[in-house]
Amino acid sequence: MKVVLPGGTGQVGTILDRALTAAGHEVTVVTRHPRRDRQVGWDGVTLGRWAEVVDGSDVVINLAGRSVSCRYTDENLRAMMDSRVDSARVVGEAIAAAARPPRLWLQMSTATIYAHCFDAANDEATGTIGGSEAGVPEYWAYSVAIARNWERAQSEAPTPATRKVALRSAMVMSPDRGGVFDVLLGLARLGLGGPVAGGAQYVSWIHDEDFVRAVEFLIERDDVDGPVNLASPGPLPHREFMRALRAAWGVPVGLPATRWMAELGAFALRSDTELLLKSRRVVPGRLREAGFDFAHDAWPQAAVDLVGRARSSRAARRGRAGAAASRWRS
Ligand SMILES: NC(=O)c1ccc[n+]([C@@H]2O[C@H](COP(=O)([O-])OP(=O)(O)OC[C@H]3O[C@@H](n4cnc5c(N)ncnc54)[C@H](OP(=O)(O)O)[C@@H]3O)[C@@H](O)[C@H]2O)c1
């Protein structure tokens, strides 16, 4: 297949590019900064020559959007909204203008669209869309608005020959450097991987292998369209999530952090506490109904697998650095 990945240079794009290329597909990444073969330039806002790669492709998977790991200032929130809505709109325009439109448009969305909740798990049919919860910071509603507008930009696009699926993804866990798992593991290794603000908030997650498998499954399943949750069936409270991660690496303790310590830490990391404190209890209703089987459905086992891969890639990096140093000395 010919697969086009707008915004495919980031964490999720790297995972998909690697897996789909290894499976023999022809992957083209659309980016604001093309640097290598199979990368095409765009601005994420306007139609241009880049749209030629969409014409005649089989699948477009749009991942573009300003990183959410930042301080939620007005300016950053606006950029998070615009980069998602504009890129989804212009991808729709490219598909609408194509003489040979792709048969499928997978549009990244987010599990953050669901309400902050602790009790009933949210699936696509019965889940509660967030934005009007009591007792949470007002600006959390903005993240829900981003997700809704993002999905609307896709659903309203006039692309009758193309099936459309919005991927309401939970945090994708992969050992790649700089990804969310890498950051959490780094904190755990420093002894800082304790519960935050009591740790009762739910963490929804999906193992990178299952993320790729779910994308491949959705490509095959012509009968599935609309929003689909990409989350393991085993979301769990943050306290247990971090305990399993510490156990997988072998860290005996994790300092707990209060809400204000989390605020301070997020400030230092130029990030925002919503990422840590919002309770996301999201489950894969439609994937399950369609017969998708998760290879990693329980976090403790998934964490052991991810830690094993993180250790191997660290050892490989050390090996390469050692070899380079000895070449330099000789
Ligand atoms: N990672 C997760 O666990 C997760 C979970 C749920 C949802 N998501 C969503 O899935 C998408 C991909 O996630 P990710 O972790 O791969 O994100 P990422 O690492 O931040 O990558 C997103 C890509 O979007 C492009 N981009 C950034 N700002 C842009 C702008 N103003 N206009 C156009 N393109 C822009 C960048 O590509 P260039 O700089 O090369 O143009 C960047 O590589 C994001 O929208 C994210 O919110 C991610």
Helices and strands in order:
Layout: E1 2-6, H1 11-22, E2 26-31, E3 39-41, E4 59-62, H2 74-97, E5 104-108, H3 140-155, E6 163-169, E7 171-173, H4 180-189, E8 202-203, E9 205-207, H5 208-220, E10 226-230, E11 236-237, H6 238-249, H7 259-268, H8 274-277, H9 285-289, H10 299-329
Parallel strand pairs: 1-2, 1-4, 2-3, 4-5, 5-6, 6-10, 7-9
Antiparallel strand pairs: 8-11
Helix pairs in contact: 2-3, 4-6, 6-10
Bound molecules: NADP nicotinamide-adenine-dinucleotide phosphate.
NADP nicotinamide-adenine-dinucleotide phosphate is lined by residues 7, 9-13, 31-33, 44, 63-68, 83, 87, 108, 110, 169, 171-172, 180.
Organism: Streptomyces filipinensis
Pfam family, one: DUF1731
Protein name: NAD-dependent epimerase
Notes on the protein architecture:
It contains 10 helices and 11 strands. With 330 residues, the chain is α/β, with parallel strands linked by helices. The chain has a single domain (2-313), classed as NAD(P)-binding Rossmann-like Domain (Rossmann fold, 3-Layer(aba) Sandwich), CATH 3.40.50. The strands form 3 sheets. Strands 3-2-1-4-5-6-10 form a 7-stranded parallel sheet, with helices on both faces. β5, α3 (140-155) and β6 form a beta-alpha-beta unit. The longest helix is centred in the C-terminal third of the chain and has 31 residues, at 299-329. The radius of gyration is 20 Å and the shape is globular. The model has no long low-confidence stretch (mean pLDDT 95). NADP nicotinamide-adenine-dinucleotide phosphate binds next to α1, α2 and β7. Residues 272-305 form the DUF1731 domain. Residues 5-228 form the NAD-dependent epimerase/dehydratase domain. InterPro entries: DUF1731, Epimerase_deHydtase, NAD(P)-bd_dom_sf. This is NAD-dependent epimerase.
